Amino acid sequence: MPKPFVFVYLPKTGATRLLGHLGRELVWNEGIVFLGPWGDRQRHREGRPDVSVWSEVKRSRIRVVTGTDIDLDSHRFAGGDEGRYFTIVRDPAERLVAEYQSLADRGEDVPGFWEWHSDRRVNQATRQFRDLFGVEDADAISERLRGFWYDNTNEHLDEDAPHLLDGSGLGAEGAPGAGSA
């Protein structure tokens, strides 16, 4: 069995465009699965069964596991003994501004930026990696990321995505950077 890909999803990194492409290419809940509240709501809305009752055969067809509820054993969800983990990160300041702007664009009642920022916890990407890897220290996080199949910043996503997807066999046509919106 080929190693499944596990995409460590970080919000506000440009990852949504990549996931949109993978969802069209592989079909949500067939070749790609999102583990977490968004995926649960999507499956419920479509009348699909919860992932906890999926058969081994159905799970073995999954080529990409992603979501907000993943860990370093998420490749096992798709029946793999090992996985190819990848992620996209973003400059923390740019990501913070994008998060704030997203809240404002959705019409949420947000205070001024600096007041909102003062109530924020640590860098959200660092927190997610800390939780995923079970380590506290930034050097340990960096060391774990070195074991990923691919990790890079979103500044290179448009240029890297077609090569990344083509090289992985996940389908590069229509990918971010290959002429899609």
Distance between the termini: 33 Å
Supply the number of helical segments: 8
> What is the β-strand count?
5
Q: Uncertain segments of ≥5 residues (pLDDT<50)?
A: none
What string, H for helix and E for strand, traces the elements in order?
EHEHHEEHHHHEH
- What about the largest sheet? 5 strands, parallel
Beta fraction? 5-15%
* Helical proportion, percent range: 40-55%
Radius of gyration: 17 Å
Identify the strand order in the major beta sheet: 2-3-1-4-5
Q: What report would you give on this structure?
A:
The protein has 181 residues and is an alpha/beta fold. The protein is built from eight helices and five strands; from the N terminus they run E-H-E-H-H-E-E-H-H-H-H-E-H. It has helices at residues 15-26, 37-45, 56-60, 92-105, 113-118, 124-133, 138-145, 157-168, and strands spanning 5-8, 32-35, 64-67, 84-89, 150-153. It has a five-stranded parallel sheet with strand order 2-3-1-4-5. The chain starts with a strand and ends in a 13-residue tail after the last helix. The model has no long low-confidence stretch (mean pLDDT 83).
